[in-house]
Design a protein that fits this description.
Shape: globular
Strand content: 5-15%
CATH architecture of the largest domain: 3-Layer(aba) Sandwich
Largest sheet: 7 strands, mixed
Helix content: 25-40%
Structural class: alpha/beta
Strand order of the largest sheet: 1-9-8-5-4-2-3
Bound molecules: pyridoxal-5'-phosphate
Distance between the termini: 97 Å
Order of helices and strands: HHHHEHEHEEHEEEEEHHEEHEHEH
Number of strands: 13
């Protein structure tokens, strides 16, 4: 009678709880099968896989891992570890992991104040994602011509700057670095933000300083195609806490990362309508390791390129790519400009016959979103076709004549970090052999 009364009574009034325990014990949402699916993705042998399965099935998985940055159950989530590793590697005060280089750029432009009616100066050669991210932030990309390094020409910047300009967006293309000293000087003179696109040159240096740490925002892609690459990943470095706040917010639903996630803005300009570029724990686990290997990887590339170019001759008809910092170049491409498109084609053909991998567009290449006039989406309605603020931004060939010319003529030789000294010697011999036949020795040496 007494007991019955107790079960009838509300728990709030001292009665027994209706639910004292849950009996149902399911399997972890993510457990051995998912773990094995990952192991299979590493293409291990059946023998290795069955040994791994046998071992992990004996473990108590509990509720299994929770694969999100927040509530990961770890003292330091893998995303936090990746961000810490990035801060240590770059000596940067703030780092935010995101799921792509494009996401990193979009967040950075939005945080830099890019919005409708504002312009960002992008290099004529780089990759479409930089300009696209400006458009996604509501702004307008304006293209700046390049110099013989194929990077943004600091001398071409000032005529493009007007009252609508918010930021400069130098891209460090294909392993070479921009002249950050001169670009920063222009930015400072005009009070502009700088968003560096380091996707193709992670761990490159200018004047001894790692790229990505010059500007207000350093953006990286850690996608599988990059030197330091996982699957699909991105990174933003900032110098200021407020910039970090804002990129965090934009990458994360508008500001959900904050201690009180749904609170109104804590200072003017903190909250902007956001996206979801959150990084996954699985990607971060891989990319944190990749970052620790970055300097060694780049050192191998640099050494290989140096071994090859130190053996090359100088030729009247060949201009080696200008390098603003020979020691800071990543070294994963060796590039030069033959004096004509036709000569470039013949040199490439001869190099390939020698067993030296080389390519050139040769005047009749395919559409290619690494140069401004082929970035077709920018011309459409969803791009900037509707914006008439700047007549220069037609995105048609001819606006950046140096880029137009060099992009057609350049000869590219991909470097491999694992070349041995003998490989480097053979490749250098092959290049000299071909250039000696097709060109004439230069009277004064030209630095490679
Ligand atoms: C210069 C440059 N910027 C941005 C990106 C975009 O990076 P993601 O593919 O990670 O979005 C790339 C990718 O190729 C790139 O080369």
């Amino acid at each position: 009678m007494n007991k019955e009364r107790t079960t009838q009574q509300l728990a709030l009034q001292g009665g027994m709880k209706a639910v004292s325990a849950i009996e149902g014990k399911g399997k972890p949402k993510i457990g051995a099968d998912e773990f094995m699916a990952l192991a299979e993705r590493f293409c291990l042998s059946d023998t290795a896989l069955s040994k791994i399965r046998e071992a992990v099935e004996q473990e108590d998985w509990g509720s299994g891992p929770f694969l999100a940055n927040y509530y990961s159950g770890l003292e330091e989530s893998r995303v936090q570890k990746y961000e810490r590793t990035a801060r240590e590697l770059f000596g940067s005060s703030y780092a935010v992991g995101v799921n792509s280089g494009t996401g990193a750029l979009h967040c950075s432009f939005a945080a830099a104040g890019v919005k409708p009616g504002k312009e960002v100066i992008c290099p004529a050669i780089g990759f479409y994602a930089t300009a696209a991210a400006v458009v996604m932030a509501g702004g307008m990309p304006v293209f700046c011509d390049v110099d013989e390094s194929l990077t943004m020409d600091p001398d071409a910047l000032e005529p493009l700057i007007n009252e609508r300009t918010v930021a400069l967006a130098p891209t460090h293309p294909m392993g070479v670095v921009c002249n950050m000293g001169r670009i920063m000087a222009v930015a400072e003179k005009h009070g502009l933000k700088v968003v560096e696109d380091c996707a193709q040159a992670c761990c490159g240096r200018f004047d001894g300083q790692l790229i990505g740490t010059f500007g207000d925002f350093g953006c990286f892609s850690i996608s599988a195609y990059k030197i330091v690459g996982g699957g699909e990943g991105g990174l933003i470095l900032t110098k200021k806490e407020r910039d970090w706040d804002r990129v965090n917010g934009i990458s994360e639903g508008g500001g959900l990362w904050r201690p009180t996630r749904f609170a109104p803005e804590r200072y003017e300009g903190e909250l902007l309508v956001g996206t979801n570029y959150r990084m996954s724990e699985l990607e971060a686990a891989v990319d944190a390791v990749q970052l620790t290997k970055a300097e060694a990887t780049v050192a191998r590339f640099r050494n290989v390129k140096q071994q090859i170019i130190s053996q090359l001759g100088s030729f009247k008809e060949i201009t080696p790519q200008l390098r603003h910092d020979t020691a800071g170049d990543i070294g994963y491409q060796l590039r030069f400009f033959p004096e004509s498109v036709d000569l470039g084609k013949r040199i490439c053909e001869a190099l390939q016959a020698e067993g030296v991998g080389a390519s050139t567009r040769g005047g009749a290449g395919r559409d290619d979103w690494h140069i401004y006039h082929y970035m077709h989406p920018l011309k459409g309605d969803i791009g900037c076709g509707c914006y008439t603020g700047n007549a220069q931004a037609t995105y048609e060939k001819g606006a950046c004549p140096v880029a137009d010319d060099l992009f057609e003529r350049v000869v590219n030789l991909g470097m491999n970090q694992w070349y041995t000294q003998a490989d480097c010697d053979h490749i250098a011999t092959g290049i000299n052999k071909v250039l000696n036949v097709y060109c004439t020795p230069a009277k004064t040496p030209k630095p490679w």
